Amino acid sequence: MSQAMTTTSRSKFIGLCLSAVQQIIQECTYIADDEPTFSSSSPSPHQNAGSPKPPSNVQNLGSIRLCGLEGCQEPLVELLCRQASRILQLYESGSGDAGPSNNANLQSGEEHEKAISLVKRRLELLTKTAYGKFYAYMYKEVPTCWRQLYTDAAILRFAVLVLLEFDFEADAGSKEDADEKERRMKRKMIVDEMVKTLDLSLILAGAAGQSRGRKWVDEAFALLEDVLGDMTAVTPAASGGAKTGDDDEQEGERPQKKRRISSSSSTKDEAIKGINDSWQNAPSFSTVEPFTPPVKNPISRISAESLSLEAFQSHFAKPRPDGNPGPAPLIITGLVDHWPALTTHPWNKPDYLSSRTLSGRRLVPVEIGRSYVDEGWGQKIISFGEFLSKYIDASIPYTPSSSNVSPFHSSSSSAQPQPSSSDLLPEKDNTQIAYLAQHPLFLQLPRLRQDILIPDLCYTAPPSHPTDPSQDQPELDSPQLNAWFGPPGTITPLHTDPYHNLLVQVVGRKYVRLYGPEQTVRMRPRGKEGGVEMGNTSQVDVGVVEGWDKLEGEDEERVNSGDEGGRENSEMGWEEDFKKVPFVDCILEPGDTLYIPIGWWHYVRGLSVSFSVSFWWN
Amino acid sequence: MKLRWTMELYATGANQSLQLHFGKQAEIYQGDADDLWEFTCVFRHRDIHTIRSFDSHTIVYQKRNNRFIAKAGRAPRGHNALRFVDENIYRTFAEANNGHVAVYNSETATITEYATIRDLLRDLGFHYKPKHVLWEDELVKEERPKDCRPSRKEQFACDYEHYHAYHEVIPRPTLVLKVSYTGFPDIVQLLAHSTGFAALSSTGEVYTWGDERFVGCLGREVSDECPAQDPSPVPLLSQLPTGPVRHLSISPTSSLLACLTAGNDLYIWGDPRQLPPSLRTLFRADDDWHDYNDGPVPVVITDTDGNEVDCIVDVAVGTEHIIALTDQGEVYVIGQNCYGQLGLGEEIKWVTKWEKVPLSLDDGGGGTKKEIKAVAAGPWASFLIVGKEKKRM
C-alpha cells in the first residue's frame, strides 16, 4: 500500500517537473525570434514581417498564456528554452533506456555532472538578470515578464534538482554505514535547495506566470511534502530506531503527522482529526511579557454575538464620541473562537507551525531591528525554523542547514561559500529582534491559510477616508491578508494605512495605540526619505515619548528616530504637544479582533510572543 | 623598418549566448558553450578600438570612422532594430537596467532620455512592432490606476533585501516617454548605470541623474535645485587633486560607477547595498560600508607586495566586477568570478582584494611584442584590446 503510494506521489512529482519543462520549451520556442539562432550578422529583424503562427500543439493548450515572457529580451528567452531542452536531454540520457543512443558522450558521469552544473550556472545567470531588474525598476513598475523569468528559471532549477540530482531511493537501504550517511546528508541538502529555490521565487518574484506560476509552485510544495513523508514512511522501523546521530536525517515531520494522505481537502480533515490530540501535549510559546505598558484610554469592547453584520455596518455611520468624522475603533471579542488556528490547529504550538512549514524548512522574510524607522533596520530571508529558534524561542531546537540564504542560488559545486546578500545586515549582536511583519504568508503557505477564515465583517461596505480622499484605494477584490509574527518587543511605529483593518490576535498579546485621522498634522508625518514617500509614518517614537524605550546609545551618532534630528530640536515643545493629543489604546488578547478604521494612526507593540493576522479591506 | 599594428581581442567570462565567440556560431553550437575562465584571444583585426558588450551580445568598432567591424552573440530585437535605423545612435546610446534609454545630440547640445528603447525608435520614426500581436494587446490593456501611495514595505523595497509582495502589484506605466535636457554642448561620454545615467564633458565635468532611491549612484546631493532626475554636476569630481575627469566607466547593470582623472587616479561611487561583498570593501576598508558617504572615493590598487600601483590608464566595470589597466600594462581585477569574468580560472569564485591577472599574451618567439591598449567589460565578461607589434621584413 505505502509502496504504491510512494510510487504515485513520486511519479506525480516527476511528472509535474517534466510537464513544466516541456511547457517552457513550447512557450519559449513560440516567443523566440525566427532569426536563426546565433546567426552572427544581419541586423534587420523587422524585415521579416510575417510572424510565425503558434505551433499547432499550442492551440490545444487552450488557456495557456504564451506571452508571459515576451517582454524579456529574446536572447534570454532562448537561453531559458535551451536550459529546459538540456534538462530534458539530460534526464532522458540519465534514465538510461529512455534516452536516445546518440548521447554516448554524456554517459560518463563526469560529463553528466559538468553538464548539470552548466545548466545550473545558466539558470543562475537568468535569475540574477531578472533579480537585477527588480530593484532597477520602481517597485510598481517591474514588468511582469521579469518576475516570470525569475520564476521559470527557479522552476527549471527545481526540475534539475528533482529530475537530475535527487536520489529517491536513498532510504531503501537500511544500512547505517558512512555511505548511507553521506547520501542522507546530500539528500537533505538537495531538499533544502529545492525549498529555497521555490520559496525565493514566491517571496522575491511573487511566482509570476499564468500557466505555471504560483499554482505550480504550490503544487510542487505539496508533492514534495508527500514524497518526503512517503520516503520516511517506508523506512523500516528497525532503521528508524537506529537513527540517533544528530547529523542524521530529520527528514519528515514527526511520525504522527508526516503522512498527508492526499492533497485533496476532503481527506485532509480525516488526517487532521487523527493528529488533534497530539497538539494538546505539545509545548506552547512562552507567554512571558518583559514589559507591559499601561492602558490609559481603553477602546470599547463588544462581543461578536451581539455584533451582527448590520450592527457593524451601522457602526460605520455612528458618530464618534468626540464628534470627529469617521467611525471609531472597536474591539470585537469571540469573533474568531472557532478558527482552527485557535483550536484544532494551534498556532501557539511551535511544533504545529513547524509541521506546516516542511519541518521549519520553508523560508520567510523577516524584518531585523526594533522598528522599521530605526537605523540598521533591515530585511532578511531565513528559514521558518531558524526564525522560531533564533528569534522567537531559543528552546526550540533547530539545526541550521542552509543558514546563508542568498537571493541567488549558490552553486552547490563551489567549495567556497558564496558571499550573499544576506550579509547585508550587520550582525552586531544576536539579541536583535526579528519580526515576520506585513508578509502575505498565507499566499506562500496555503495550508496555514486554511486555519483562518475571512471574518464576515470584511464583507461590509466601509466609508472612505474621513479627511483625505487621496488616501482611498481602488476597491480590493478580496481582503488582503498579512501575517505579523514576532517575539516580545516588536514595534510597528506610528503610521496609517489606506485601508480599513481587522487585526486579529491569534497568539500572545499586543499593545495598540490609536490616534484619529484628524490628528494627522500633530502626528508629525515624515516627508520623502531616500527617494521614497514616508508621509504615512510619524516621526514620533511613541515608546520613547512615553519613556518605555530608551534611545539606543546616548551619543548623537546613534540617533534612532527622526524626532531627535537637528531640525526638530529647534522646535522645542513638540513632545509636550504630542503628549496632549487624545488617543485610545488597548491590549489585544488571543482571540480579540481590533477594528482600525481607515486613516487612524496606530502604534503596535508586541508584548509577548505574538502572532496576529490583519485583514485589509475597503 | 616599418611598423604595423595588428590587434587582438582577448575575452573572459560568461558566454551563454556565444557573445564571446566571433567565429561561425552555428557550427560550434551544441547545447551551451561553456564560459571562458581565462583571457583567450577571440578576435583579430587590423584596428580594434571600442567594445560594446551587452547582456547577450558584443559589438566591436574600429577607430577609423568608428566603423562597426564585428558582432558576436544574440542581440535583442530592439537593439537589432536600432542598429538598423541609425548606426551612429546605436554606437553611443546608453540603456539602463530599468529600461530607460539616453542619447546625446551634439548639434543641439541635447541629452534625450526615453522610457524604453521602443520610445527611442518611435521618436526616430520607426514603428517597432512587436512580433506577437497578443503582447501589444496586453500593453494597450494596461490600466493606469490613480496614483496610489506605496505601502511602508514597498518604500523600503529598495533597501537591503529586495523582496516584494508582488501579488498586489498592478503594472503602471507612469514613465514619461521622452525628456530632453539642453545646454550640454560638449559631452564626450554618455553611459548608463542600473538606475540612471552619467555623462562626461570634454572639460571633465561629470553629470549624473537617475532614480533617487539609489542616491549613491548620483554621487551628489539631491536638492530642489539639483533634483535626482535632472543631469546635474557632481561637485566632488570637479576639484580632484590629479586633475579633471577624463574617462568614465559604468555598467548598465551595476550600481558602481568609476572614473579616471587626467592624472590617472581611479575614483568610484555608487550604492554598496546593491553590490556583492567583494566590491563593497572598495567603499570602506574597515568593512563598515553602511556608513558610506554618497560621494566618490579614491581607489588605491596595491600589488602583492603591498606597494601602491600608480597610474591606472583604463578601467572597466561589469555587473559585479572591475578590471583596471596600469601604465605598466598590468591588469588588475576585483569582484565576482562566478562566470569567469575575472579571468583567474574556474577555482576562484571571487576576489575581495585587487588581484593581478597572470597573462601570457606573447605567442612565444617571433619577436612580436604585444601591448594591452585598453580594457572593456560586459555585464559578466572582461575584454582586453591588445596591439601587436609586428616587424615587417
Detailed description of the structure:
The complex is a heterodimer of chains A (618) and B (393). Chain A is α+β, with helices and mostly antiparallel strands and 618 residues long. Helix content of chain A is 37%, strand content 13%. Chain A has helices at 2-31, 56-60, 74-94, 104-107, 109-136, 144-165, 178-205, 213-233, 237-242, 265-273, 276-281, 309-317, 350-355, 384-392, 441-444, 446-449, 542-545, 566-569, 574-580; strands at residues 301-303, 330-333, 363-368, 378-383, 434-439, 480-486, 491-495, 500-507, 510-515, 528-529, 532-533, 584-588, 593-596, 601-606, 610-617. In chain A, the strands form three sheets. A nine-stranded mixed beta sheet of chain A has the order 1-2-13-8-15-6-5-3-4. In chain A, strands 7-14-9-12 form a four-stranded antiparallel beta sheet, with no helix packed on it. In chain A, β1 (301-303), α12 and β2 form a beta-alpha-beta unit. The longest helix of chain A has 30 residues, at 2-31. The two termini of chain A are 50 Å apart. The model of chain A is unreliable at 33-66, 97-103, 235-271, 402-430 and 554-570 (pLDDT under 50). Chain B has helices at residues 25-28, 77-85, 87-92, 117-123, 133-141, 152-155, 277-280; strands at residues 3-13, 36-45, 50-53, 57-61, 68-73, 94-95, 101-105, 110-114, 178-182, 187-193, 196-201, 206-210, 232-233, 245-250, 256-261, 266-270, 297-299, 301-302, 308-309, 312-317, 321-326, 331-336, 350-356, 369-378, 381-391. Classes of the chains: A alpha+beta (618), B mainly beta (393). The interface between A and B is large, with 96 and 96 residues.
